[in-house]
Amino acid sequence: MKRAYLELKQLTKAFGKGADMVVAVDAIDLEVQEGDLVTLLGPSGCGKTTTLRMIAGFHTPTSGDVMIDGVSVNEIPPNKRPTAMVFQNYALFPHMTVFENIAYGLRIRRESDEQVKEKVARIMNLIGLEGLADRQPRQLSGGQQQRVSLARAMVMEPKVLLFDEPLSNLDAKLRVSTRLEIRKLQQRLGITSVYVTHDQEEAMTLSDRVVIMDRGKIQQVGSPVEIYSHPVNRFVAGFMGKANFLEATVKALEETEIVLEYCTKTIQAPRWDKRIKEGDEVTVVVRPESVFLEESQEDLIEGTVVNSVYFGSQMLYEIEMPDGKVLQAEIADPQDHPQFAKGHTVGLSFKSRSLHVLAKE
Amino acid sequence: MKQQSKSRVQQINEIKKLIREPFLFISILVIFYLLIVFVLFPIFQVFKTSFMIDGQLSLKNYRDVLRQSYYIRPLFNSILLGLIVATIGTFVGFVFAYAITRTPMRGKGIFRLIATFPMVSPPFVVALACILLFGRSGIFAGAIGNIYGLTGLTVVETIAYAPTAFLALIGVLQAIDPSLEEAAMDCGASRGKVFSTIIFPLALPGIVSAWLLVFIQSLADFGTPMILSGNYQVLSVQAYLQITGMFDLARGSTLAILLLVPTVIAFYLQKYLLSKKSYVTVTGKPTSATIKNLEWYIKYPIYAMCFLFALIVLLFYGMVVWGSFQKLWGVDSTLTLRNYVQMWKIGKKYIKDSLLLSLIVTPITGILGMFIAYLISRKQFIGRNLMEFSSMLTFAVPGTVVGIGYILAFNNPSFLMPVTLTGTSIIIITLLIFRNLPVGIRNGVAAIEQIDPSIEEASIDLGADSGTTFRKITLPMITPAFFSGLANCFVRSMTAISAIIFVVSGRWNFITVAVLGFVDNSQYAQAAAMSLLLIAIVVLALGLIQLITNRLGKGMQSFSIIE
Ligand SMILES: Nc1ncnc2c1ncn2[C@@H]1O[C@H](COP(=O)(O)OP(=O)(O)O)[C@@H](O)[C@H]1O
Ligand SMILES: [Mg+2]
């Protein structure tokens, strides 16, 4: 049975005083289960790094608690905390070899020479750093430096492993392969981890759970699927994947369905939010991949193609809707579908199951 | 209200954290004690003495000084001299810096060496050379009129302090991205336009700051006017004479404060300017293309000026060498080693004392400077700003003021310093340490700020405490800067005069004081011999330290030995 291993309770951090005060993290609550990898996802400046640094102990919370394994660690200085961090710029010690870098923390802990050697060798094997022990950090590629930094944190067998955008300095290809490796390692060793990123794709592929943050507050916590299919607000919907927002009115409520009127036409969507009532103005989240296009017909919503971009595996259309808004549609396998030129009037329909209705904010 | 209590909680947390690191906590307390006793207390004493008459607070000293032209004169003279020297010195420095960074001049290394050489010798060596050249029995006697006064002071101080401007401006010009100039030329701007619309505006804060640096140095200079001022009285010398000649501590202190005020203003202006110049972009070196196609009518005048200045520097120092071998200056030009023998006989003790004291002072200053640099750039603690301010203070305060402060503060026991220090080696050692500390700190801060803080955080994250992190991570990375700080400190100790002259005694004396003594007795040849010995020691030490760092820092970034 999993249990809450890392807990943040009403955690708050304010920088500066008086008029210059910035509340970087605003009373957030979070529970991370043992062995899980949780990502903090949000736009730049939303307080992810600050949160992570409070967990590591580099920032003292203005108020609130950080609990690890049921014990508050607020009073414990960073060097005594059972956390280890992988830094964005790796922060390798430039005057030490790879081996010395990885062994550093173990040596501080005064582990015996044999033990240090054994542990470092094991982790270097695991992470794929064989044969690099005597290199200087500057003789390594970016990817290798990243691994050393990961090894240096993991070898400490921390209770909580922290990552601050560890892949942002790597090129796109390396980023994808490295994040898969991080995930595999983390699962294999079962280390509870908190991972900061602003890249939603990274968050989706890595995490057991995703925490969406904005302006110092948590917007939503959930599995990647939950968040993608049932975002709680427009911010989350827009941040996690692409989204179109349609303004509609609720015409009727059924047990599991909600009937909406949009531009004089009727659409149906699953019913989630039980607070929504008949007659309410609502926002419908439409993912671009849930839009179907065909020649316009009597009972379909009509739109005009204003732009189309061909990506090979998919076709992206921009369509002006009757209400003047522009909607994005992604058509997979464009070869199997009719193609529409700019200016063409098309008929739209939606994959009902993947629509998501939000109450007006 | 709520906010305030929050920040108080944070403060308490900070204190708690600090107490949990006892080494750090105790060091901070000790450093504060030292700074209070050896930096703030002496300066406070100068203020106090200048504002006190018979134990009563009074402005009488200032009224007296400002009313009598005899005293107000030196204030104007000092400032006028400072203005002239700063302007000419900055101009010379700029031409040199421009030549080094923006022209294809050949022999840049040698020009650079010559132009910075006056920095490793005490300024009064140039004054001595000036006497040997243009003095009553000089080779070009009378060629520039009476050298005892504004003319002589201007010539000598310009040679002595243009290097300061030069070094500051090299940094400024190097930081201006040459692609900006290329872009401007691309847009059709001529060389002149590029200079007036791009280089000059971008360099202006740096130029003003270099000007202020030279102004401060000229104002604070003691050795040169001591030798050359003649009837042109300046503050630093007058303050000294009031105290050592007239035993008038109050008046001496008052003059010292008058000297302090413009210097401190200039210093903070300069700091402010430097903190604002952030829009200068630091990128690569000038590409050869911009440099190579420089028009002749721009190149040659610049070369000529550099050549002339280098020639003058060589002439001055050459004269000291030549003079040191003359049997009797201006009378008997037989070559002899007698001056060296005599100088050694009289000066042995001075040389030994200065060497010993400087060797004690240098490592202490180096370590303390680095440690304070580390504290103020990496640690959060209450009083951090005060620590930074007070440890950098002696940088802005003229040596004369510090010297007077030390006499006033340590002549008698006080609750801060329960024993009398006057006459001991301790007073010289502490004076040198705290006078040179700012250089070490500035070096250290620059080096530490280049280290990404996350590297130290990584160490702490892995379980090391602050002390271990400093020892194992920060220290090795700042070692080059540390040694360059040592070099600096040693040079500054050996060539110190303005403050030292107040605290030397029969028991402990200083080589620079001996040179001044020779000059005072018109024993120019011995003075020259001793100056050369002093320069030789300094150059030797610099070479040695350079050697060590080259060994040490095979892979590490190199550094230049002079700031
Ligand atoms: N040391 C600091 N002092 C003042 N403000 C800070 C400091 N660190 C972060 N902030 C501010 O706090 C907010 C959140 O920053 P951060 O946690 O770094 O965001 P993120 O990592 O999500 O991009 C930002 O507005 C930032 O400017
Ligand atoms: Mg961040």
Description:
- The complex is a heterodimer of chains A (361) and B (563).
- With 361 residues, chain A is an alpha+beta fold.
- Chain A folds into two domains: 4-237, Rossmann fold (3-Layer(aba) Sandwich), CATH 3.40.50.300; 242-359, Beta Barrel (OB fold (Dihydrolipoamide Acetyltransferase, E2P)), CATH 2.40.50.140.
- Chain A has eight helices and 20 strands.
- In chain A, strand 12 and strand 13 (265-270) form a beta hairpin.
- The model of chain A has no long low-confidence stretch (mean pLDDT 91).
- Chain B has 563 residues and is mostly helical.
- Chain B has a domain at 71-323: Orthogonal Bundle (MetI-like fold), CATH 1.10.3720.10.
- Helices cover 76% and strands 2% of the residues of chain B.
- In chain B, the strands form two sheets. In chain B, strands 1-2 form a two-stranded antiparallel sheet.
- In chain B, a hairpin with a 3-residue loop joins strand 3 and strand 4.
- Residues 1-6, 278-289 and 554-563 of chain B have low confidence and may be disordered.
- The A-B interface holds A 14, 17-18, 21, 56, 58, 60, 62-63, 75, 77-80, 83-85, 87-89, 91-95, 104-105, 108-109, 136, 149, 152-153, 156 and B 3, 6-7, 9-10, 13-14, 16-17, 20-21, 452, 454-455, 457-465, 468, 472-473, 476-477, 555-556.
- The complex binds adenosine-5'-diphosphate and magnesium ion.
- Magnesium ion binds next to helix 1 of chain A.
